[in-house]
Automatic annotation (TrEMBL):
Highest taxon of source: Eukaryota
Entry's Gene Ontology BP terms: fatty acid beta-oxidation
Biological classification of the source: Eukaryota, Metazoa, Spiralia, Gnathifera, Rotifera
Protein name: Enoyl-CoA delta isomerase 1, mitochondrial
Recorded catalytic activity of this chain's protein: (3Z)-dodecenoyl-CoA = (2E)-dodecenoyl-CoA; (2E)-tetradecenoyl-CoA = (3Z)-tetradecenoyl-CoA; (3Z)-decenoyl-CoA = (2E)-decenoyl-CoA; (3Z)-octenoyl-CoA = (2E)-octenoyl-CoA
Pathway: Lipid metabolism; fatty acid beta-oxidation
Length: 286
């Protein structure tokens, strides 16, 4: 069995890492839109910071994809805690403005960047812990489910889930598969079919998240878990992750064009465009 999981799939998304030599990295990376803090040689904290809701547009996805590549190029780095500096939101998913009244070429680029992000994250051999400080919606939920472990703040007002169906969107098969791998087939079917949104305690009961902590303990608990897992023999942990995830990953890697076309066709549908317009207006009205 191949142990080089990431580089096995990475060339297929046309950004091979094998030819990029490892370079020494600065201790931390800060941009306006995210912050990476290297806590030790072994793990880092990656904070999204695109107020008001960390919505994912093309430029932001490209930036985040570059950062995931950067993590992969560091052989000493074992894990990343993914969280958000935005008050009360982890991520509200794709920037709906990218989907509403969109140009097909731009929409295609957005979707390819979404696919890249998921393939890099779900296919990474590193440990990803999602420290969920706030709302985790739509693609934000898919991102959290693609991490190895989810810890969420204890706040009943915080929401997690995917409500695509309310707008007439059939969630892509790789999102469904990620959810099935997290909470099982029956709960996924109910969750997606009936646009279920959960508070942290409901999500914990379902297995959609793994732990709930008070907000002041979110990072310290995430670091505690990370430190424990960094002690697990690396090669065996990586091989186990690969063997658990390669089938699901391969289903998108080998089917990207179909997934892109399905997304473009369904998003450009006039009925869906109408729904998106009304949905955007309802968000703005609040
Ligand atoms: C539209 C499709 C829906 C679901 C698709 C589901 C996904 C399937 C899974 C994955 C892949 C398929 C394709 C993926 C698509 C997506 O991810 S589309 C994004 C769907 N996201 C949502 O439906 C979340 C919408 N947002 C909210 O529910 C709330 O904003 C919040 C609970 C996250 C935060 O609430 P508040 O703190 O009360 O903040 P406001 O609601 O006032 O929002 C502040 C500000 O931000 C704007 N905004 C919110 N979300 C988005 C977004 N996703 N894209 C762009 N802009 C967004 C909102 O309009 C406010 O704007 P202003 O009024 O300040 O101008």
């Amino acid at each position: 069995m191949s142990i080089n999981f990431y580089s096995k799939f990475f060339p297929l998304i046309k950004k091979g890492v094998a030819s990029v030599p490892f370079q020494l990295r600065p201790l931390s990376t800060r941009t306006d839109l995210f912050n990476v803090e290297n806590k030790s040689e072994e793990y880092a904290i990656f904070r999204l910071n695109k107020p008001p809701v960390n919505s994912l547009n093309l430029e932001y996805l490209n930036l985040l994809n570059n950062q995931l590549d950067e993590f992969e190029r560091n052989p000493k780095l074992k894990g990343i805690i993914l969280t958000s500096d935005v008050k009360s939101t982890f991520s509200a998913g794709v920037d709906i403005l990218e989907m509403y009244k969109c140009e097909p070429k731009r929409l295609e680029a957005v979707w390819r960047a979404v696919q890249d992000f998921w393939i890099k994250l779900y296919g990474s051999k590193k440990i990803y812990i999602a420290a969920l400080n706030g709302h985790v919606l739509a693609l934000g939920c898919a991102i959290a489910m693609s991490c190895d472990y989810r810890i969420m703040v204890d706040n009943d007002k915080t929401k997690i889930g995917i409500t695509a169906v309310l707008l007439g969107i059939n969630a892509p098969s790789w999102v469904k598969n990620t959810m099935i791998n997290t909470i099982g087939f029956r709960e996924t079917e109910k969750s997606l079919k009936f646009a279920k949104i959960y508070n942290p305690h409901q999500a914990l009961k379902l297995g959609l998240i793994d732990e709930i902590v008070s907000s002041d303990k979110l990072l310290s608990r995430s670091e505690e878990v990370m430190k424990t897992w960094c002690k697990i023999p690396t090669l065996a942990r990586e091989m186990t992750k690969e063997s658990m995830r390669s089938e699901t990953l391969g289903k998108l890697v080998n089917n990207r064009e179909v997934d892109v076309q399905e997304f473009i066709t369904s998003t450009m549908d006039p009925h869906l465009q109408d729904n998106l317009g009304k949905y955007l207006a309802s968000l703005k009205k609040k």
